[in-house]
């Protein structure tokens, strides 16, 4: 494996962990992440603030902040197909396609109660099972990644640097703003909802990505 390939695996796995719900096990992995990222020049920079927070903040506060920012609303939704299909019925087919990818490698993926398009899950799959196929998914959902990043940036959350680090491993430069992302991917609100949380009008999901 090339040096770039190893760097991408380390970046994806560290990102998967840093974007997941924090628990004692995750906090215990911080030294491992620092050591692994430190093997590649510049790789640790996007993770620095989040790793410092994991080590320097009590666990209950970390968990409360994660729930507030990632679980209670859709502003920073980490489910890739939410940004392309919203809460429409078509999304069920998309989620089935994610499961099919995982099954195609004869790999038992522990969803841990999450939908299969959960970004940390896709990243962990890419890093530990099949980087090529995982990257294909990330390229396909590049607009979702970019919109997640811009949402995190808007709310001044350091996880935005981690998502940008993921985008930097993919072909092409990141769009300059959300309007450019929407233009690239095709924009339009979902035509039918299954009754979940209402959309932030500034962040309507895209269709046709």
UniProtKB/TrEMBL annotation:
It comes from the Bacteria. Keywords: Nitrate assimilation. The keyword Protein biosynthesis does not apply. PANTHER family: NITRATE REDUCTASE MOLYBDENUM COFACTOR ASSEMBLY CHAPERONE, NITRATE REDUCTASE MOLYBDENUM COFACTOR ASSEMBLY CHAPERONE NARJ. This is Nitrate reductase delta subunit. It comes from Arthrobacter stackebrandtii.
């Amino acid at each position: 494996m090339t040096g770039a390939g190893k760097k991408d695996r380390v970046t994806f796995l560290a990102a998967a962990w840093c974007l997941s719900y924090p628990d004692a096990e995750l906090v215990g992995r911080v030294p491992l992440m620092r050591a692994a990222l430190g093997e590649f020049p510049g790789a640790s920079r996007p993770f620095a603030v989040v790793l410092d927070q994991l080590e320097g903040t009590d666990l209950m506060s970390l968990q409360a902040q994660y729930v507030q920012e990632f679980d209670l609303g859709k502003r920073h939704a980490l489910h890739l197909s939410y940004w392309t299909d919203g809460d429409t019925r078509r999304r069920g087919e998309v989620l089935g396609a994610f499961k099919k990818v995982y099954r195609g490698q004869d790999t038992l993926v522990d969803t841990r109660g999450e939908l299969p398009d959960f970004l940390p899950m896709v990243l962990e799959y890419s890093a530990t099972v099949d980087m090529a196929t995982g990257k294909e998914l990330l390229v396909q959902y590049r607009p979702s990644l970019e919109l997640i990043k811009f949402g995190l940036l808007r709310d001044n959350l350091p996880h935005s640097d981690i998502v940008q680090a993921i985008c930097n491993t993919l072909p092409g430069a990141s769009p300059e703003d959300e309007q450019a992302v929407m233009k690239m991917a095709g924009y339009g609100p979902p035509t039918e909802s299954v009754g979940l949380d209402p959309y932030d009008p500034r962040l309507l999901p895209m269709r046709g990505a």
